[in-house]
Amino acid sequence: MIISLIVAIAKNRVIGKNNQLIWHLPKDMKFFMETTIHHPVIMGRKNFESIPEKYRPLKNRNNIIITRNENYTAEGCIIVHSIEESIEYVKKNLKTNELFIIGGGEIYKKCLEINVVDRMYITHIETAFSGDTFFPEIEEEKWSTEVIMTNFKDDKNPHDFSIVRYNKID
């Protein structure tokens, strides 16, 4: 099973502000949906709660929420208390060839620190934003890269961006 991370980051590594996305890029959101559909998604509690209520839990995906709160519940979701527990749950209970870590900042950081990520799909937005949550620095030499989409700003997508697939080099 491949453990993938999926994220959109600004030029200055910002990924959010006040527990919200800062930008609106429908083409990137479509890519996110098409890429993660029918796969388990792992996220932190704050990230889950930042998803607009009408979209929670994310449809056609097993939503796995990591929280320290032993009493936390969320209808239609699986609740775990560590990254390791979330991955173990998927391995034991779900048939999938790929799972997706979808944030937020602390979850991304920890997953990269404990070296569980095999692949990353990173949307690089060619604009800097003011924010309070950042994607961690990565060691570029440990990853092979392939640009899988480039989009120039248009009426619906107000920023240039490219989506790059990173595969860990063994």
Structure overview:
- The chain has one domain (2-168): Dihydrofolate Reductase, subunit A (3-Layer(aba) Sandwich).
- An 8-stranded mixed beta sheet has the order 5-4-3-6-1-7-10-9, sandwiched between helices. A two-stranded antiparallel ribbon has the order 2-8.
- The two termini are 15 Å apart.
- The chain has helices spanning 26-36, 45-50, 83-93, 105-113; strands spanning 2-9, 14-16, 41-44, 63-66, 77-80, 98-101, 119-125, 133-134, 143-151, 161-168.
- The protein is of the alpha/beta class.
- The chain is globular and about 40 Å long.
- Helix 2 links the parallel strand 3 and strand 4 (63-66).
- It is built from 4 helices and 10 strands; from the N terminus they run ββαβαββαβαββββ.
Summarize the model shown.
With 170 residues, this protein is α/β, with parallel strands linked by helices.
Q: Low-confidence parts, pLDDT < 50 over ≥5 residues?
A: none
Q: Please indicate the count of domains.
A: 1
Count helical runs.
Answer: 4
Rg result: 15 Å
- CATH topology, which one? Dihydrofolate Reductase, subunit A
